[in-house]
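Task card 7
Instruction: Convert sequence to structure tokens.
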Amino acid sequence: MDLNKDVKYVKGVGPNRVKLLNKIGIFTLKDLITYYPRTYEDRSKPKNICECINGQEALIEGIVCSKLSETRMPNKTMQKLVIRDETMSATIIWFNQSYLKNKFIVGKKYRFYGKINNQYGKINMTSPVFDDIDKSKNTGRIVPIYPLTFSLSQNVLRKIIEAGLEEVIGELEETLPNYIINEYKFEEINKAIKNIHFPQEFKDFENARKRLAFEELFSVQLALLELKNSYITEEKGIQFDKNAKMSDIINRLPFKLTKAQLRVLEEIDNNMESEKSMNRLLQGDVGSGKTVVAMCAAYKAVKSGYQAAIMAPTAILATQHLENFKKILEEQNIKCELLISSITKKNKENLLERLKNDEIDILIGTHSLIEENVEFKKLGLVVTDEQHRFGVKQRTKIVEKGQNPDVLVMTATPIPRTLALILYGDLDISIIDELPPNRKKVETFAVGKNMTDRINAFIKKQIEQGRQAYIVCPLVEENEESDLKSVEEIYEVYNTQVFPQYRVEYIHGKMKQKDKDFIMQEFKEGKINILISTTVIEVGVDVPNSNIMVIENAERFGLARITSIER
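Output:
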């Protein structure tokens, strides 16, 4: 048995179908049997027709009472079939399915699965899945539902996967040690693969899923541990100068660091002074002071004779970092510069030349940092802010611009420690679990549309007290196919109806950079009361005077994104 054989050699796969399978990432027999369902439909338990509830999916069994009838309508045809069980009759309806004319035999029993329409005591079912009672393939069992591509149906994919399973079941080699299988009472691999696709009961699916999920996470952990060990055993990292003390910059800060920040800095300091390359994840809530930690690490790198790169996901955040770094580090004769896509060609050429000649100590920027023409003279430290916004390749590219530099990745997304160990098993983990003194906790509330008036009243009260507000929504322009509120739609409502007495502006990613920068600067200076925005303001925009944020259609945003927005 060859799991790597081309899927085109599996029974039921022809030249056309192999292209469709390739579109969904199935190229080999192994890809096919590990293409797991996204959900399941329980089509195993039939209901009496009289028990069917309007709007629910149900399986019914009935004897065909008469031949299928066809009615011609403008631009379409309608097919009707009347069936009956021991409780009552039901009408099955299709549209434009003339081929069904000779599919059903009067007096024979069939199964039908679909959505029930129960109006005035009459049961209808439109375009159901059906089977001959004696040849059930798509009904009478728990049926897997797979992610699809255009022109590839569930029925076709199920048949192909069944054919693939027939080739491998009983032949698959066990991948987990016996002691793990026995300790956790896992199913063996052949049974698990079969039951994840075609379980007899939902308990079978749950047992299969438990085993396969464990195996996947177990494999990831082993790979990450191997990667982590390679950091230790392979090429040595940079051993930064012990005489370049972070305390020199800490003592010059206009505020005191928290115990948590000092603890994390000690961990980073120990990493940087060792021969082992630092690969550390720094996690901390919004406002916990991760940026100043990165600044201290960059200071040590520069004072040890190296350069540092700080990569942020947006130009706004990168610009903000530059301002903060300059305030503290320029006094120490450390040169900080900004590289974002909006700078002029002439300025960029000059900046890159100075960077290559070691005339820039800390370069702060966006994805522009990973461009091929960006060359560091002696890159020693790479800091990635809001790391979830960058792909692995992007982070790798910036690291490859130095000779095994130390790496610090930062996130404000709250990740449980166990999950963090799984996701970032190749990294050491530091957590800032303490907010600076007088820093108030961000309070988040989920409210319905019925609270709109109260929310607007609260915004009005805050603005009257001299504060500002953000309104965040997922779309830029109104979409007739969606009921989601858009930036421009909300702007019109707020500007002309709700708050005509205040200055309301909007910002989104499709605007020119200079227009976005102008609006954000006006907002930071307090000249704008309410800013309507997409997630262009998502990461780290520092407007201390803005103390309220309304996120429209919050269900459209993941946890990481909402956390970033709330900064």
